[in-house]
From TrEMBL:
Gene3D superfamilies: 3.90.950.10. Keywords: Hydrolase, Magnesium, Metal-binding, Nucleotide metabolism, Nucleotide-binding. The keyword Metal-binding applies. Belongs to the HAM1 NTPase family. GO terms for molecular function: dITP diphosphatase activity; ITP diphosphatase activity; metal ion binding; nucleotide binding; ribonucleoside triphosphate phosphatase activity; XTP diphosphatase activity. The active site is at D66 (proton acceptor). This is dITP/XTP pyrophosphatase. One of its GO terms (biological process) is nucleotide metabolic process.
Amino acid sequence: MELLLASGNDHKAEEFSELFDPKILVVKAAPEKIDVAEDGSTYFENALLKAKAYYDKFKVPVIADDSGLNVQSLPNELGLHSARFGGPGLTDRDRAELLLKKMDGVSEREAYFSCVLCVYFSEKEIFYFEGRLNGSIGYSYRGSTGFGYDPVFIPTDKAEEGLTVAELHEWKQKNSHRAVASALLSKFLAQRN
């Protein structure tokens, strides 16, 4: 099966290509980016908005994802707004470093990544798959793999070692919020065929 990825994010396209068994699913980057107003109040709503917009334009089955970082001590600042945290013009690193600055002196550092995948086969066939990765915000920017907030996020499973997701490329491929949601999708597609 082939799905069109509803995203202009090259990192996501790369990550998805590594997450799926090509015998089951191939995810192709969209030929052009569509600006979609992500004004939903949940990850599910935003994933659906993106999936429907790309489906309506390209008329092929679509996979869309909405994901973000949820930080317990900053409940209204990231989440659905993770990609826009700090305002326009910031790089991924700028956003991650701004988060570290806002967390300076904060002892409650619990956080989790959320990912909701929406697979849009048609108006009557829409499916969702959700993944979550629990952890905490570290105290410094570390690691060179991954993107976004990976260099400041320490997964619960790696807390003893103190490693960020950006220092755990192979581990991330199997355990990230996106990997968990993708595994659920893969299982669904295997049972559907």
